[in-house]
Amino acid sequence: MKNHYVGLMSGTSMDGIDAGLFEIEEKGCNTVAVLSSKYPPALRSELLRASRNPGGCDLDTLGRLDNWVGECFMQATEQLIGQNSADRSRIRAIGSHGQTLRHQPRSERPFTLQIGDPNIIAAGTGITTVADFRRRDIALGGEGAPLATAFHKWFLSDPNENRLVLNIGGIANITVVPAADGKVFGFDTGPGNSLLDLWIQSRKARDYDNGGRWAHSGQVSDELLNALLDDPYFRSPPPKSTGFEYFNMHWLQERLAAISRVESLRDEDVQATLTLLTARSIADAVVQHAPESRRVLVCGGGVHNSTLMRRLKEQLSGVAVESTAGYGIDPDWVEAGTFAWLAKRCLDREPGNLPGVTGASRETVLGGVYF
């Protein structure tokens, strides 16, 4: 049976591609093989420039990046198959999220833009490729995000326990999965790792705060934390989604400039405060929108930041906070698994969105198919 699917994902950090091979049955998802593939430094530099300064990205640049990212996704798939001697004949499809350059679901003309030409992936691998997962939801009035919530519901729910699945990528999002037949919903809570990464990159020339050690050496500024939490995004009701278009260095610098004692803050104090911002904004969302949750299952890169995880547990006292690793899937591969599963849903002509999460007017099949 062709019950193997490849999931391809690259997040807002734009550092490379997560490629996973999954065996997906009616009631389960088994991780067969995984691979992380870095972008060439020149490509990552151009992607960051294009996404952070969209006014400077002309059509020729966009077309070239679309081709380049597609080639990298194709090569990552071939590496995944080759290095693991995977049986290509069992792979039914590749689900490619692509690389987000812009996400503006609430603009006058709502849109989201993921690049990475799926024609190149399908032609280079000889495997049917499903891509462009977000725009059908937006066409139906939704946010086009978060999409992983449907996979969370399918794979990580429990009929006897109120759970919440938390993904901490560049942006943090939650999926509330009640016991039995309760209403599943979710949304982006705000920044996850994005501001932490931006700040340490600007001050220490490191890609990220390994284990949250730098944040651990700093002191939280209550004044700065309050200024950050005062943003209206945190108070706006779901459905909602966000990205680096909103929570970026400009956003942070504006709030730093507004506080009275900014000159007394050390760089590590800002990092400590940003870490608590992520934990606090997540916890506030849980308390306000999912107070019955008894277990929080964490996935995404943030699970490796021990300072962030400690802060999160402090903010969610009385709630079990655990990695998804103990529940059948490694936290680093949940998003790749999501797009492998969404590829299956598309080919089976099954809905991939949850309107209660995205705000779309109805359920719909997600993705375009490239045979």
Features:
12 strands, Nucleotidyltransferase, domain 5, 39% helix, single chain, five-stranded mixed β-sheet, 13 helices, 371 residues, 22% strand, globular, seven-stranded mixed β-sheet, alpha/beta
Characterization of this structure:
The protein is built from 13 helices and 12 strands. The strands form 2 sheets. Strands 1, 2, 3, 4, 5, 6 and 12 form a 7-stranded mixed beta sheet that branches. It has a 5-stranded mixed beta sheet with strand order 9-8-7-10-11, sandwiched between helices. With 371 residues, the chain is of the alpha/beta class. The longest helix has 25 residues, at 59-83. It has 2 domains: 4-144 and 333-370, ATPase, nucleotide binding domain (Nucleotidyltransferase, domain 5, 2-Layer Sandwich); 148-327, 2-Layer Sandwich (Nucleotidyltransferase, domain 5), CATH 3.30.420.
Question: In summary, what is this structure?
Answer:
The chain is of the alpha/beta class and 371 residues long. 39% of the residues lie in helices and 22% in strands.
